[in-house]
Amino acid sequence: MPEGVEYLHCVQAALDEEGLRYQVLDVNGVVRERLEWPFALADAVQWQELPPGETDALFSGRLKDSRIAELKLKGRIANVDVTTAQTIFSAFSAGSIEAIWLGVRGPEQTLTVIVHRKPGRSPSYWQGPDLAANENFDIHVAFSPDMGPGGVLYRYHNDPQWSSFRAAAATRLERLDWPPRWSVGHGRSGMNDCPYLGGSLSVAISVR
Description:
By secondary structure, this protein is mainly β. Helix content is 0%, strand content 46%. The protein contains no helices and 16 strands. Strands 5-15-7-8-9-10-14 form a 7-stranded antiparallel beta sheet, with no helix packed on it. The two termini are 31 Å apart.
């Protein structure tokens, strides 16, 4: 494993009718990782709609104490001949590249998450489902720092079962700082920065 990722540890786990719970302890007995699965779905009152364009973040900093952030994405995918990267949601600080970019990329319009943790370091990529051209979509994307590299997940609106994005990353999201600026429908540099080319885009978020 990469330096600073793995450590000598033991795992305590319980599995019963409520689900799976585990914690990971290091050689000093300190709980370094934990997880309860499945996590509860958001109630209707926990969702906040995000306006199109750039806005102040509804929260910033790190997700701690088993908190998750869940995005609800709705819209219509662009035409079949669109292959450019299209922004659905991004989070960034002024003058810096996006720490989190979520959108569709490539000829299959693949739902993709790109995370930049540190300036000057290569980003991490997570790839989700391909979205059919000219079709409506209703997908939830969750960020769970407790779940390791598998902690970027998606599910379709009417399906309570989550699937992990395909990860090209060895680290989880516990060190990810959510920046103070967000945008919906385009990147950090304005309307012409990787704009979303489909239609009827809406994004809501629940942090719990």
